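cache lookup: miss for this entity combination. No prior model stored, computing from scratch. Input as submitted by user K.M.:
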Amino acid sequence: MERKRSRIDIIHDMIISIQKKGGKIKPTHLMYKANLSYNQMNIYLEDLIEKGMIKKIEEKNSVYFIITEKGYDFAQKIIEMKNFEESFGL
Amino acid sequence: MIPLENSPNWFSVPSIIIDFFSFLVLFSISLISLKYYNLSGGNKKYKYISFAFLLICASFFFKLITNLALYYNEFIRADSPTIITDTLETIRSYNIFTDLTFTLFVFLNLIGLYFLYSVYQEKQAKSMMFLITYFIIISTYFSNLNYYVFHITSFLLLTIISILYFDKYALKGNESTKVLGYSFSSIAISQILFMFVSVDKSFFILAEIIQLLGYLLLFLILRNIIIHGKKKKQN
């Protein structure tokens, strides 16, 4: 049975999804790629925007989310942490 | 009896350097794990791993102090005939000091290894934990009488931890976990070789080199974790 994702797991999945899309993603894509409900996504997005890790922009009448430098640094730390977790079998 | 006493004279300084390197690797793992504990918002497993490595790291601190005191006493003070300090009192206080630091080394090392093993045991009865802690205290006491006891106990704990990592590798297939298994296996093998130092001094050199190999592998895992993270960021 798959274990429930923690808050940090969800943030990790969101940031990785944006990174895979070249650092810029539409909300609907983010929702599917990070496997989140609409409400869940909004809660996490609000938090990440408030912390300056993600920015909301508008281009050609569409809304996009981009990762900031702070977001990239945070993503790196999470990836390191995940690698540590997998290496040590935690 | 303390292993450095069985080291060839020329190998005393390299041996201290190897222990210092091991100390730094253990301290780095403890520090990084603590950083991830804060980052994860309080995942207790990171805290326990950090504490286990901190205990082993602290044990190496006392091993270093013991060996530095031995080195000073055997090679530096002995070579200074102008300084006559060898009164009965200083020898006695020196012996008490090295006995104490050696005891702390043995106890912290064994309890640290047991704590590391416990991190992976989801359900462990408290009575069992008390019992094993009691046996570790007994082992520490007997290690002071005969250092073989320490190396046998340490070998057993390290072997169990190695098997645990190899089992995890078989389950998840993460290459770093396999390297971690090899790392702890190397350190376990070094414990066996340390037991033969009274037969031939070259066993001491071999044991130290194999121990160094184990800690080098641990260092490589740590390096890969950080480098891999940076690569992913660039991608």
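stored under new cache key. The beta strands of chain A are 24-25, 54-59, 62-67.
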